[in-house]
Write a structure and sequence with these properties.
The complex is a heterotrimer of chains A (654), B (248) and C (227). Chain A is α+β, with helices and mostly antiparallel strands and 654 residues long. Helix content of chain A is 37%, strand content 16%. Chain A has a domain of 142 residues: Flavocytochrome C3, Chain A, domain 1 (Alpha-Beta Complex), CATH 3.90.700.10. In chain A, the strands form eight sheets. A five-stranded parallel beta sheet of chain A has the order 7-4-3-11-19, sandwiched between helices. The longest helix of chain A is centred in the C-terminal third of the chain and has 25 residues. In chain B, a hairpin with a 2-residue loop joins β6 and β7. Chain B starts with a strand and ends with a helix. Classes of the chains: A alpha+beta (654), B alpha+beta (248), C mainly alpha (227). Chains A and B meet through α3, α5, α6, α13 and α14 of A and α1, α2 and α3 of B. The structure holds flavin-adenine dinucleotide, iron/sulfur cluster (SF4) and FE2/S2 (inorganic) cluster.
């Protein structure tokens, strides 16, 4: 193990941060990492749950190294993980534009963007390997956008002042994932990875305090399967669907992370939720998900609402149209409030500003929750063709959903839940508080602090999978070469399987009156109302009670059709929603504990004229929660955050 | 809006399936097709019936999971759109709508409208990649790619692996899907070293999976939600001819 | 990567190999159609079959042409056998058909009906060769003498239903070519934005002109415009 001169062990948490200056930590770590010789690697089995950017890249890389890998995903193909949805791009400190970017600046921006709630050492490592990610992806044939000279194109994204975002049309996530997926399929073809699609992890199996395998449900047959692994990696994505409506895919869930949590893995900063400012507003009760309109739209679009409530009302009632509001009667509120960043203000700020405008009665869609994103000026300046070419895929997508042409009338947008910065607490090695259990990608809490910058999640997922986990997991596995595969009849496996299958039987047996979706929607309403863009002690306290009631109701009144031993998506959904309800309560507890406003966590009690007020004195820590039983309060462990390289400052975008 | 649905119900791969009629009312024109099915399923569940199983995930036309043959067309009547991007305003009030799964020997039915597209994964595993291990890459800009080629490669790479091409093709041929990946790689310098191997291996796997052959009807291109072009199939033919007849 | 053997048998058994054979033989048969149509068009000299018989004799006796004829027969057989194999593969690829399919929304009926059109053409081919080619070659083989094809034509095309069969054969040929001509280029990978338009125009023109020319022959004879 790397030397750990200034490692922080507080409160039972060991973050295992290597010593030395922040810029040398990763190098030092790699220099000292323990290795497994090739002959031994073949005897070691690694389980990777999830095949998104983080999981697919990890599974492929570990298999390339020679480990025996088993990979799992709940979709019908590893290629469909939710990472495919990312449109905007991926950051990298390549400085190909010669505009002053560097590893340090990406590190700095990420720590600052995260509102000083991320671990410096992790973020620096992320910025360092960001450079290798682009190399790797290009080598795989990822068709990034290029300039006429044949070299890679970059754009500025999500409020960054340098152009460091690489992109592949509006399909960056898809193309990056296909790169990783193809690497994974190659290993499958070579027999180094065994792939289990349409499988859902239902339990983590721990033996003597170490993760030793999982119970997975074969979603087609309904059968539970036991799988042994010397280490278990969870790359199962984020939990934004706790809000029911979010930009996440329908199947995105917290189940794997939550099961791990219940088996001893601490949950870090669960309340940090990112609300993305540019989504298509909710149009009706039937709505199943929200669609994100890429943030890049804010490069040319101007956000506004009418200055007066009367005008807004007239628009809502269809008596006036956007075009009828004169220039001087419009409030370009982002430009007004944040003159230097304007429409490109960070996500949390732009989202909150939209909420304020709508709470003020100036929303412009029927529900009252929507603002304009107007391209009229850009069209005047650049011409229709340029604008059309720039947003080639986005405009038709918007038009298809809403039946309105953004070239003719302003888009209507509203913030929606998009990303969860919180997740399983992990140390520098991405190991959770359970030995041998790792969390990668959006599933962990690690690198984004209280707010994630645009184009940084793809970067983090791939950093974890390609370049971090192969080293850090190896470091652990070096100590496991004498561990023989554990018999699947070991009581720990048998018990875990039984508990998973019992739970399903219980769900089917309730035969209540309300469908799973009913409960999910109810959960979403509570979370959005009290634990969404603005939170208060009062609301959160109330929410906790509501959630406890909802949980009881769920377990006594849910109606799950079908049987056990068949393809039964409703049953699977029921299990996920049950976990979401429990997670929701933890989020509320965490939000209530954090008496400050930072990044995606805004407590109305803590603000300065509408601006978030951080409390570095008392809250510059990671809140890692330990599960203590269903009806006991979770226990808080604090990992203090130390900032040696980035000066703690008020995050001002004025 | 009001519709009469005729939905294919089949308990599992080996069960006998049949079309079942459902009447549905109170549908909003702004609903997506899948949301309409959600509404129907909610009703079925509350009536104690088995809801209709179907695949879906992202619901924004990018994951390629949704897959319904609607009103006689793969992904329904909307051009260049997936099932999840189909909105009810595309239909007329009172329409009768047939909903069937993708039908192909290579895509066995899992349940109702959900099918197993593992064949596509196996085709990719056979050769749809560049063999480069993590860490072996050179600096990204050491490999310039002519913009026109980069764009064409991106056009081909846009395939989401949904299988609509197979579903729409009268021969259940997977040629468009395979050609998209072969083309992407053939157009990029990264793909050159394995070019012949790739074409041979992917086509061999495609044939082994039991897909039909291409007779150039163009149905795939017309129904592909990502508008993958037939020129890719021509390129695949060239690649394959080159690999098996010309290359040494 | 699974290594597919590069042997020729693999090529010909593969989907693309079959397409290539289909396209190549198709183009070969198209070239035959040109010659066939040209020579038959000699009847339009309306010179009592002098020019026609001159060329007919050349085609029937020239050793090079006679050798090529073997290739032609092989071309037909390959095209037909390959077509049947394609049909089988494609039929098996979808064991359960759609209950309702609106295929016209995405493709042309004749593109989807090449097997059917091909079968009709095969039936026509049998009728046609048993009218002319088979008796003629049989006579050459047995008696060493060519038959008077011109006269045979005049005789045979006096019967209305035979004329009808020939016209219908040409209609099938039209549809078959309308798809087949362009399709052959696509199968051979000859698809290029610069030339697609040309292939398209030539293909369509060819599919119209050649069958029209053929169909006009029995008609003009039937109506006594040529004797
Ligand atoms: C609409 C949208 C746009 C975005 N745009 C950008 C962008 O432009 N730039 C950027 O950097 N980030 C973007 N993000 C964020 C980014 O896409 C995600 O954070 C990131 O891709 C997550 O990757 P992942 O590998 O951690 O998880 P995912 O890709 O979500 O993968 C999760 C995997 O886990 C599996 N899984 C989950 N639960 C289980 C279980 N219980 N059992 C078995 N398997 C399970 C799934 O099958 C899947 O394979 C965007 C996100 C959204 C929603
Ligand atoms: S080629 Fe088109 S239709 Fe076929 S799988 Fe790809 S995206 Fe779907
Ligand atoms: S559900 Fe993802 S493409 Fe339709």
């Amino acid at each position: 193990m790397a030397e750990e001169s200034n490692q922080t062990i507080t409160d039972g948490l060991n973050s295992k941060i290597p010593g030395g200056p922040v810029g040398d930590k990763w190098t030092t770590y790699k220099r000292n990492v323990k290795l497994v010789n090739p002959a031994n690697k073949r005897k070691i089995e690694v389980i990777v749950v999830g095949t998104g950017l983080a999981g697919a890249s990890a599974a492929a890389s570990l298999a390339e190294l020679g480990y025996k890998v088993k990979a799992f995903c709940f979709q019908d193909s590893p290629r469909r993980a939710h990472s495919i949805a990312a449109q905007g791009g991926i950051n990298s400190a390549k400085n190909y534009k010669n505009d002053g970017d560097s590893v340090f600046r990406l590190f700095y921006d990420t720590v600052k963007g995260g509102d000083f709630r991320a671990r410096e050492a992790n973020v620096h490592r992320l910025a360092e390997v960001s450079v290798n990610i682009i190399d790797q992806c290009v080598a795989q044939g990822v068709p990034f956008a290029r300039e006429y000279g044949g070299l890679l194109d970059n754009r500025s994204f999500g409020g960054a002042q340098v152009s460091r975002t690489f992109y592949a049309r509006g399909q960056t996530g898809q193309q990056l994932l296909l790169g990783a997926y193809q690497a994974l399929e190659r290993q499958i073809g070579l027999g180094n990875v065994e792939m289990f699609t349409r499988h859902e992890m239902a339990e983590v199996v721990t033996i003597d305090g170490k993760a030793r395998g999982i119970i997975a449900k074969n979603l087609i047959t309904g059968a539970f399967e036991k799988h042994f692994g010397h280490a278990v990696l969870l790359a199962t994505g984020g939990y934004g669907n706790v809000f029911f409506l979010s930009t996440n895919a329908m199947g995105s869930n917290v189940t794997a992370a939550w099961k791990a949590h219940k088996k001893g893995a601490f949950f870090g900063n669960p309340c940090y939720t990112q609300i993305h400012p540019t989504c298509i507003p909710v149009s009706g009760d039937y709505q199943s998900k929200l669609t994100l309109m890429s943030e890049s739209l804010r490069n040319d679009g101007r956000v506004w609402v009418p200055k007066t409530k009367e005008d807004a009302k007239a628009i809502r009632e269809g008596k006036k149209r956007a075009e009828d509001i004169k220039e001087e009667d419009r409030d370009y509120y982002l430009e007004r409030k944040y003159p230097s960043y304007g429409n490109l203000s960070p996500r949390d700020i732009a989202s909150r500003a939209a909420k304020e405008a709508c709470d003020d009665g100036r929303g412009i869609v029927a529900s009252g929750f929507g603002v304009f994103l107007d391209f009229a000026d850009a069209i005047k300046r650049l011409g229709v063709d340029v604008v059309k070419a720039r947003y080639g895929e986005l405009f038709p997508m918007y038009q298809n959903i809403t039946n309105e042409d953004p070239l003719k009338t302003p888009m209507k947008i509203y913030p929606a839940v998009h990303y969860t910065m919180g997740g399983l607490w992990v140390d520098y090695e991405l190991q959770t508080s359970v030995q041998g259990l790792y969390a990668l990608g959006e599933a962990n809490f690690s690198d984004h602090g209280a707010n994630r910058l645009g184009a940084s999640a793809l970067m983090q997922g791939l950093a974890d999978g390609y370049f971090v986990a192969p080293y850090t997991v190896g470091n652990y596995l070096a100590g496991e070469i004498f561990t023989k595969a554990i018999d699947l009849n070991h009581p720990a496996f048998v018990e875990a399987e039984k508990s998973a299958s019992d739970r399903q039987k219980t769900l089917l047996g309730i035969k209540g009156k309300r469908s799973v979706d009913d409960f999910h929607k109810a959960l979403g309403h509570i979370m959005w109302e009290y634990c969404g863009m603005a939170r208060s002690a009062e609301g959160l306290t109330k929410a906790r009670k509501l959630l406890q009631d909802l949980r009881k109701e769920f377990w006594s009144d849910v109606l799950v059709p079908g049987g056990l031993n068949e393809f039964n998506p409703e049953l699977d959904k029921a299990g996920r929603v049950a976990d979401f309800i429990e997670l929701g309560e933890l989020m509320v507890v965490d939000a209530l504990n954090r008496n400050e406003s930072c990044g995606g966590h805004f407590r109305v009690e803590y603000q300065d004229e509408g601006e978030a007020k951080r409390d570095d004195e008392n809250y510059a820590y990671v809140a890692a929660w330990e599960f203590k039983g269903m009806d006991a309060d979770p226990q808080l462990h604090k990992e203090p955050l130390q900032f040696d390289n980035v000066k703690l400052a008020v995050r001002s975008y004025k | 809006m009001k519709f009469k649905l005729k939905v294919w119900r089949q308990a599992n791969q080996n069960a006998q399936g049949k079309l079942v009629d459902y009447d549905i009312d109170g549908i909003n024109a702004d609903m997506s097709f899948l949301e309409m099915v959600d509404v129907l399923n909610d009703k079925l569940i509350k009536k104690g019936e088995d809801p209709i199983a179907f695949d879906h995930d992202c619901r924004e036309g990018i994951c390629g999971m949704c897959s319904m043959y609607i009103s006689g067309r793969a992904h329904g009547p909307q051009h260049a759109a997936t099932t999840c991007q189909l909105y009810m305003r595309k239909f007329k009030d009172g329409d009768t709508i047939y909903v069937e799964p993708w039908r192909a020997r290579a895509f066995p039915i899992v349940k109702d409208l959900a099918v197993d597209r593992g064949a596509f994964d196996r085709i990719i595993a056979a050769g749809g990649f560049v063999s480069v291990n993590t860490g072996q890459a050179q600096d990204a800009n050491n490999l310039p790619v002519e913009k026109a080629f980069a764009e064409k490669a991106m056009d081909a790479a846009a395939c989401i692996g949904c299988g609509a091409c197979v579903a729409a093709c009268k021969n259940a041929s997977a040629m468009l899907f395979v050609s998209a990946k072969v083309s992407q790689m053939a157009l990029l310098p990264q793909g050159q070293p394995e070019r012949t191997r790739r074409a041979l291996a992917m086509v061999a796997q495609m044939d082994a999976e039991g897909f039909g052959n291409c007779t150039n009807t163009g149905a795939c291109e017309a129904e592909c939600p990502k508008e993958i072009s037939l020129t890719n199939i021509a390129r695949l033919n060239r690649e394959y001819i080159n690999a098996s007849v010309i290359a040494e | 990567m699974a290594t597919a053997a590069k042997s020729n048998s693999v090529f010909f058994k593969s989907s693309i190999g079959k397409k290539v054979v289909m396209g190549l033989t198709g183009l070969f048969l198209i070239s035959f159609l040109i010659i066939h149509a040209t020579i038959n068009a000699m009847i339009f000299y309306n010179d009592g079959g002098v020019t026609f018989s001159h060329w007919g004799h050349f085609m029937g006796t020239n050793p090079i042409i006679r050798t090529l004829e073997i290739g032609l027969v092989a071309g037909f057989i390959l095209h037909i056998v390959d077509g049947l194999m394609l049909w089988k593969q494609n039929h098996d690829a979808r064991p359960t058909k759609y209950a309702y399919s609106n295929a016209n929304a995405n493709s042309k009926w004749y593109s989807r009906s090449m097997g059917l059109l091909g079968t009709l053409l095969l039936i026509f081919l049998v009728i046609h060769t048993s009218h002319f080619w088979i008796p003629n070659r049989a006579n050459q083989f047995i008696h060493g003498e060519e038959l008077n094809l011109y006269q045979m034509m005049l005789d045979i095309f006096q019967v209305w239903y035979i004329v009808l069969i020939y016209v219908l054969g040409c209609v099938s040929l039209f549809w078959h070519l309308l798809h087949g001509f362009k399709s052959a280029f696509q199968s051979l990978g000859l698809n290029h934005t610069k030339y697609n338009k040309t292939i398209d125009i030539v293909g369509t023109a060819f599919s119209i002109v050649v069958p029209l020319l053929f169909a006009s022959m029995p008609l003009v004879i039937f109506f006594g415009l040529i004797r």
